[in-house]
Specification:
Layout: H1 8-30, H2 36-51, H3 62-89, H4 99-121, H5 126-136, H6 142-149, H7 153-169
Helix pairs in contact: 1-2, 1-3, 2-3, 5-7, 6-7
Length: 175
């Protein structure tokens, strides 16, 4: 899917609709995946996909579209897990690629993206930025972050949503 930056009005309209459906969709994911933090990640991925629609038109049947998108996100997750499991069993072929070249290019691209994301994150309020980094970089669970900041899990979720919305508005896709 080509990356598209939605207009601020369209983004805000979709964000409002998404927030209204957030609890129901999160419960839907939690019934399908055992890890609550993974359910949160799938929810965020669904939001990203909905906001990056390429046709620019308003979504007529938002709830139906959101569930189809959520199902697609879940299917992709399961497919990726299957591929990883298959790759783990495949023998490595070191002679097939020049590993140094591939690694150098990957490292360069990763550093470039990191610099862009870091610049956008620095414009966030300090607590929101810290919460985002603890979740996405350090891998802490929402409950652990909430305990660390003495706030509710719901507050952590709101900070994460703000950080993701901010990154999207500034043309960056969260990792």
């Amino acid at each position: 899917m080509p990356e598209v930056n939605p207009s601020p009005e369209r983004f805000d309209a979709v964000a409002r609709q998404f927030r209204a459906m957030r609890g129901v969709l999160l419960a839907w994911f939690r019934r399908r995946v055992p890890d609550p933090s993974e359910a949160e990640d799938l929810l965020q991925e669904s939001f990203l996909r909905v906001t990056q629609r390429t046709d620019g038109e308003a979504i007529q049947q938002f709830e139906n579209y959101l569930y189809r998108t959520a199902q697609s996100v879940l299917t992709d997750r399961n497919r990726r897990r299957g591929v990883r499991a298959a790759e783990a069993q495949m023998a490595l072929e070191p002679d097939r690629y020049d590993a140094d070249q591939v690694d150098a290019l990957r490292e360069l691209l990763a550093k470039e993206k990191l610099r862009r994301v870091e610049a956008v994150l620095m414009t966030l309020p300090e607590r929101t930025r810290a919460i985002f980094i603890l979740r996405r970089v350090e891998g802490l669970r929402y409950g652990e972050i909430a305990a660390r900041f003495s706030i509710s899990v719901s507050a952590v979720e709101k900070h994460m949503a703000r950080a993701i919305e901010h990154l999207l508005r500034n043309g960056e896709r969260p990792a």
